């Protein structure tokens, strides 16, 4: 079963949106199999966002993502990587459709509430950066 890495960013945590966001993915039918509230160390933030290190906003991005607690999560389900991206909406909230998380709750590209892996390779890499193997649980097959 496919897994993805999702993270409520510091703006989402401060605005008390963890419950709303978790609820959307639960109601969709996905399963939360890992979760932790944490302040990301600078080195981890730089590694996580490594593909953006040449971008002019890289410093701002790392400062922001380390500025307060985030809620890091692993979600499981069929086609969860692409479906979660659809549910999040476009990276820039000005392009995000109403009904999506960013369309409903975010206004600027820097503070866009949520991060989600964009491919199976990113999902595997990002889950590995944030979670130890034993921190990702398996649900009982009986339920
Ligand atoms: P995310 O999906 O977490 O991946 C990279 C992040 O970079 C992205 O969401 C945006 O929040 C952020 N980002 C993209 N463009 C800009 C920008 N021009 N200024 C600041 N942050 C940006």
Automatic annotation (TrEMBL):
Its EC number is 2.7.4.6. It holds the Pfam family NDK. It comes from the Bacteria. SUPFAM superfamilies: Nucleoside diphosphate kinase, NDK. Its cofactor is Mg(2+). It catalyses: a ribonucleoside 5'-diphosphate + ATP = a ribonucleoside 5'-triphosphate + ADP; a 2'-deoxyribonucleoside 5'-diphosphate + ATP = a 2'-deoxyribonucleoside 5'-triphosphate + ADP. Residues 1-138 form the Nucleoside diphosphate kinase-like domain. This is Nucleoside diphosphate kinase. The gene is ndk.
């Amino acid at each position: 079963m496919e897994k993805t890495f999702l993270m409520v960013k510091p703006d989402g945590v401060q605005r008390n949106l963890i419950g709303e966001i978790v609820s959307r993915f639960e109601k969709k039918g996905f399963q939360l199999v890992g979760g932790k509230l944490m302040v990301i160390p600078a080195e981890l933030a730089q590694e996580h966002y490594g593909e953006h290190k040449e971008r002019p906003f890289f410093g701002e991005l790392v400062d922001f993502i380390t500025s307060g607690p985030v809620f890091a999560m692993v979600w499981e389900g069929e086609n969860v990587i692409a479906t979660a991206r659809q549910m999040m909406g476009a990276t820039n909230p000005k392009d995000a459709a109403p009904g999506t998380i960013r369309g409903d709750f975010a206004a600027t590209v820097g503070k866009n509430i949520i991060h989600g892996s964009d491919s199976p390779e990113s999902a595997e890499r990002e889950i590995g950066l944030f979670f130890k193997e034993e921190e990702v649980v398996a649900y009982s097959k009986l339920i």
